[in-house]
Every structure is written in C-alpha cells, then in structure tokens.
Write a structure and sequence with these properties.
This protein has about 190 residues and is α+β, with helices and mostly antiparallel strands. It has seven helices and five strands. Helices cover about 40% and strands about 15% of the residues.
Length: about 190
Amino acid sequence: MFNDLSSPAALMATRRSGKPRDLGKPGPSAEQLDRILTAATRTPDHGKLGPWRFVIVPEDRRDAFHALLERAYRAERPEAGKVEMEAVRQFAYQAPTLVVALSTPAHASHIPIWEQELSAGAACMNLLIATHAEGLAGGWLTGWAAYSDMVRDAFGQAGERIAGFLFLGTPTRELEERPRPERDAVVKVWQG
C-alpha cells in the first residue's frame, strides 16, 4: 500500500513498537537523538504550555538508574525475591538509549489537566514516530516504576508524573505486527 516510506502515511502505517529487551546497539547517535527529541516537541499543545519534558538517562548512568529502581522496589516490596530483583535489573539495562518522559501539567492554567496529559502522550508518540523515521525502533513502557514516587522524584517533582520510559535502539529481531482493532469497530460516522 505504501511504497514511499518518506511519506507521513507510510511512516505511520509501518511503525511498530520494539520490545525494549530486543533493542540493541546502535541506539540513536547524538544527532539522531536531537532530531528525535525536536520532533517530539512538535505536538498538539492547547495553551502552548509544553506540559511535558524528557530526561535522557545516559548509558554511563544506567548503573545509577538500576540502583534507584532497586531502592524504590525494595521500599515498596521489602520481601522481594531474587526473580523480582532480576526483573528490575533487566528493566534498567534494556536498549542502548533511555528517555524518561514526564507529564508536567501547569495546574494553575485554565487548560484542563486532561488536555495537558493528552499532549504529553502525543509527545511520546511523536518521539516513537521520529525514532522510526530515523530507521530505529522504540518501546514505551510504564509498569510499577512509572507510578513510584521515589522514581518520579529522581526525574521530576510532586505534581508531575512519569508518562513512560522510552527505550530506543536497533531491533535485534523482526518487529512483530500485533493485532489491531478492525477499522469499522473503532471508526463511525456520526448521524446526529
């Protein structure tokens, strides 16, 4: 259907999420990451509030990120066993590039918080589409860490929320097509 992958429609139709554990090196270069993040900021934003931001976790800070996750997990689940802690470790070291997306709503604004949160989600989606445009793949995860105040406080502050952990890299296996809703199940024409 889409032969020209430089078209926006083809880009959207061919984008697939990569499982972060299956994303290897190389990740985006510094120049690619700059383009990806610049594209991510070109998102619908009622009131021009920029109610989101991104924090890059450099590769040389992954040990510190792992230590943070481990402290936060143990604080919430002191009885955690070896298998759980191994899952925490694996989460920290997935994919070569990690960007933490934060929803940072302007609570004093007249713009509804819901619209600001939608803008943060749109910024994350733009980041994933731009990653695909660069010939790479991304995976957007949340999980317990996105809801941990201790983890959030390492990247933001009260009133902010982690919108997701965006892992970027090169797929080490073919990206799978996943079930999508049938168009007619999710698209209707309003009849008034």
